[in-house]
Each structure stands twice: as structure tokens, then as C-alpha cells.
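CO-FOLDING WORKSHEET

Operator: S.A.
Ligand of interest: zinc ion
Run index: 577
Mode: holo prediction, single chain
Checklist:
[x] sequence pasted
[x] SMILES validated
[ ] output reviewed
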Amino acid sequence: MKIPTLCLAVSMILPASIHATDNLVLARQGHTDYVIVVPRKASPATRRGAQELAQHLKLMSGAEFKIVDDTAPAPDHAILLGITPPGETPDAGANTDLGADGFVIRTVGDRVSIAGPGPRGTMYGCSALLESLGVRWFTPTLTIAPASPTITLAPISTRETPAFEYREPFFAEAFDKDWAARLRLNGNTPALDESTGGKVAYAEFVHTFDSLIPPNLFEAHPEYFPLIDGRRTGGYVQRCLTNPDVLALAIAGVDRAFAARPDAVIMSVSQNDCASWCQCEACRKITDQYGAHSGLYLWFVNQVAAAIEKDHPGKLIDTLAYQFTEAPPQGIVPRNNVRVRLCPIAVCESHPYERCDFPATREYVANLAAWSRITSTLYIWHYNTDFANYLMPFPNFDEFPADLRLYQRSGVKGVFFQGAYAPGGGGSDAEMRSYVMAKILWNPSLDADAIVTEWMRGVYGPAWKPMREWFDLLHQHARVPQNHLRIYDPPGDAFFPPDVRAAGDKLFDDAMKLAESDQQRRDIAKARLWLRYVKLVMEPRDDNVLDTFLNDARSFGVTSLNEGGTLESWAQWYRSR
Ligand SMILES: [Zn+2]
Ligand SMILES: [Zn+2]
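OUTPUT RECEIVED:
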């Protein structure tokens, strides 16, 4: 871990009105008499929180914070984790509306108490306290802890819960376990385990019809499969959802999946990634009854969810509202243990959805509103990258923070931000995106633009201004009302006209001159790769510019420039075009 010495004076973040003597002095001149107290039976996640506190407070101050258990009465100078301070009502322990992730941080006398009733609450409270003292985890490898031999803490009483129960930026960089835990992300993909209080673990994630009702049953039971143009059809297709055996197989499959994955809290029962729905009379009848394809799918999923509720209380069933099932039904609502996941794959991503006139976006906004009238437990699959051009800058930082607030108003409970996820990562702005997303998934009312600036100052150091100018230049073009941005668009003149490409080169030159560390120069060079990619696509080259680009991309660990492809397959395509 790289720890630059950055001097955000700790006093800067304290309210000026608080008199110094009111403050707790956690460390003085590199020493402390505070101890961190954990319950004897503390969970691994609470113990991790204690270690995070001790490690980072030492980084800041040089002081050694001992971790002790609560066998003996806690001293006055104690940071209590998961323990209600004497004389206080035990609301942090008993208040179940803090959920799995919420916490309370309070100072009582000279003591600090951090407690959340759920599996991650206390650990998240430790990360929040460190952030309030100026610690930042900007990337998986760049932690900034303000050097501060004396650490003071103003009296505090806060209670925090996240806006969304499920928070997952899906970028290769964001799969780092420590980074995810510190940023309070609880999605399915990072290797979060008991030591981090688990996660929203899926038994199986998406497109599960083939797993639940295997395609090889077609020969013996064609009736399980869709009737398409008068014939039962096998292969990669949907299922005949009104067939009672199909329902029984799905229920048994979910039961089996939860038994195999005791850590899983949710299982996907969802359509395959194709159209080919069943046109049989019974399926058509249910579809017509509810006025949309989604009616039949929800009718089926609700029955699965009802059947598994007794044996798997508290567990959830996820399903999709995707393509032919995106429009909501009438006369049926998702059960409490169902999460319907909307997947707006065709919308424009440059403009906040409510301000964009692109037809697919208008349609999606209407569908979201209609779904939100029948349920307050939606999940969203939010596409956040150009999937045909992972390295192309994707200027949607106006869009996703605004739409996260739209989601919060619409009763959404979980958001999956799908980005460049190939091994090695390297997709444009992947680390900054993941960081900003983590912050606003917890609290959508935070100022995302200010978080971008803070991230750039932290990562690029004195070179941050030209990097920010480049970011702003791209977003100026994203604000042109007719410049819609879809997730498979090639780089083009609407976003990257010749003057923008030239300005980009100059800004990267300027940034490189201002950088003061090898790490900053490397981060700037990595960001420049994204402009170099755009130029290669828009200004085809046959000389060694391609080879140099490919070598540099490899040196940054990039293994893929588009979904499903490799760096080599892209190079082959480029050379042959
Ligand atoms: Zn059917
Ligand atoms: Zn648009």
C-alpha cells in the first residue's frame, strides 16, 4: 500500500465553533492512551473494523492503538466497537431499521462508540470514522491518510444507513476485496467473505433458465420449452412457464442452489438472454391477463418465491425486466421476497434520463415510473461503459449521479453498475468511476462533481488541473442535447472531433510535466491510453503506432478492449480492416 504524506489538517474537518477542550484527543504527539474495545464474541468483520482503525490511526499519528476485548470494564479513553456505552439506551444494537449495513457513531464523554446491528454495520462505521478524519481509499492501492501526530475528534452523534441495500460497481478494479469493504460496497462479485461481514451473495446471478430447467430435457419433454410458430423449440430459448412441471423444476432448482450456497441471500430466476418466448395458449392467456410479457414472468417467479419462503426465510428471488419484459404488468405485483431488476440496455447514457429526448430513454423513464408504482424493491442493471470500446472515454458523469437520485426517488433498492470487467481491467476511468459510484450508492445526495475533483487531486497530485480540464471538455460535448451516447457506439466526431483530440494531447502533455511522482506519471499515462485508443480508431494507422499502443496497453494489464474479446483479437481485427 502506498501512503503518500498528504497534509489535510485534521482540524479543517472539525466545526470551528467547537472549543478545543470539548474535543476528544485520540492521539497526542504520536502517542495514545486510547484502546479499541471489541466484544469477546465479536464477529470477524467487527475485528476487521478494529484492525482497520488501529492500522490507519497509526498511519496518521504513529500511535499504537491496542485492541482489547470487553472482559474487563472499558477505560474512559476507549473506542467501543459493537458495544453500547454504559448509561445509554441500546438502540444501536436493537434498532433493526439500521439493516445489514447501517451504524451509529457517538461520543459519550471521552469514549467513542461505533455500533451497527447487522453483519457489516460496525465495520462500516469504522471506515466512516476514518473518512471523517481525512483517510481516503482512492484506488485499491492508493490510500491517503493525513499525517497528524495529534488526532482530535469533535463530539459526534450520527446515524447512517445506505440509500441502497445492494451496491455493486462491476469493474475489474472494484473486485478488490479490501477496497470494496472499505468503500462499503456489498455486491456479489468481490471476494467479500465472513471477514467482511459477507455480501449480497447470489446463489446464481442471471439468465438462469438453462440451469433450472436444463436444455437437454427437450428430447424427453418438449412441452417444457416454448411453442414458437406452432412448434416446441429447444436450444437457447425461454421456457413454457405455465407448465406445472417447469414450475416444480424451478422450485427444486432454487432449493438446491440455496443448499449448495448457504452464504447466498438471493437467487436469480430469470429469462435467458434472447427473445423466443412461449406462444402457447396458456402462456398467452396469462400474458394477456396482465397486459405485458412481464406479467407471465412475474406470475411464475412469484410462485417460486412463495414456495421457497418457508424453507428459506429472509432469502430473495431476483428476476429481470429486460427487453421484451421491460414494460411492467397490470394487476400483479412482486412478492416481498422478489427483486425485479430493470435493465435499460437501449437508453442514452450521456444525459440524465429525465432530460434526454432519445426515444428508448423516454420509454425507459415511463417504464421505471410504472414499475415504481407497483413495487418499492426494484434493482437496476445500469450499463456504464462502451462495451464495444472499453477504453473509450465514456462521459456520463452528469448522467449516473442524477439517475441514482431518480432511482432513490423511485423506490429502487439495489444498483449494479456494469462496466469493463475483463481480467486486468484498464477500462476508461474505472477506478474513479468505482470510487464515485461507491460514495453516491451510499448517499446519492453527495456532490459527485466534488468527489471527482477530490479524487483527481488525490491521484494526479499537482497534475490534477489539466486532467480535470480534459474531463470537463469531454463532458461539454456530452451536454449537447443531440449527442446521445449508447453502449456500443464507436468513437466519433460528436464526442471526439479533431480539436478535442488535439486539445487532449496538449492537456496530457501539460499533466505529465506537472506530475511529481512515478505513480502520478503512470496514472496519467494510463488515462492517455484511452485517448490514444480513440485516435487509433478514428485515424487508422499502419505503422508502429499500433504496436506501441498494444505494448503499452499490455503493460497496464489490459487484456481486453471489448466485451468478450481479447487485446489480440482486437489487434487482428484492426489490422485486417
Ligand atoms: Zn407456454
Ligand atoms: Zn441523450
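REVIEW:
Residues 348, 350-351, 356, 358, 361, 484 surround zinc ion (ligand 2) (CB under 6 Å).
Residues 1-21, 89-94 have pLDDT under 50 and may be disordered.
[x] output reviewed
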